[in-house]
Write a structure and sequence with these properties.
globular, mainly alpha
Amino acid sequence: MIRVVLSLLFMGLYVTSTAGARNDYEVCAGSSEQRLEVAAPQHSLDDTICYETALVCAIKAHAAAHIEPIMAEVKAKLDFGDADPREEKICLFFTKYKSPAAKYAKLFVQVADENDLDWRLLPMFAFIESAGGKVHLNNNIFGWDSGRARFKTIEEGIRHVGRALTLGPYKGKTPAQKIRVYNTHARYHKLADKVMDWLNAVEV
């Protein structure tokens, strides 16, 4: 499944139709990165509107006109076989925004199940914090530990953060409560809810 997705990406299926969206994202994200600061022990953002600007402005401006028709073509060509529908949703979601994290769809679900997490939590954090692996340092696609955490691989980071979301201040909390511990800003909570709804709404 992952080979199929990566092949489609590298074949340039989206290059022409999503160029505008990608450029908008990169411009917004570039200015947003300069506004980050430490405000909480585990994880924080100066103001989550910077990521709303980086992500939502590109999505709203181009999705309907450019991305949706292409996604219909992609879905027609992808063959998921007997894959978990949650994997399909994650893979299609990240593929839609040309995010490298699409290839980790199976691992996101596996780690979620191993740690009894909502399957949308890890993909959501990865999408908000690094646009699904587009912008990150030291394989830390979650901005974990205020971006200071270093992982040997992205897979290691996914497993580490998945486990960490069941320990310490996260232990015994609902998904909504875990998000509030992850980042204390109210606007971050709203954006997190929005991304999780988008993941739910992906048609497979």
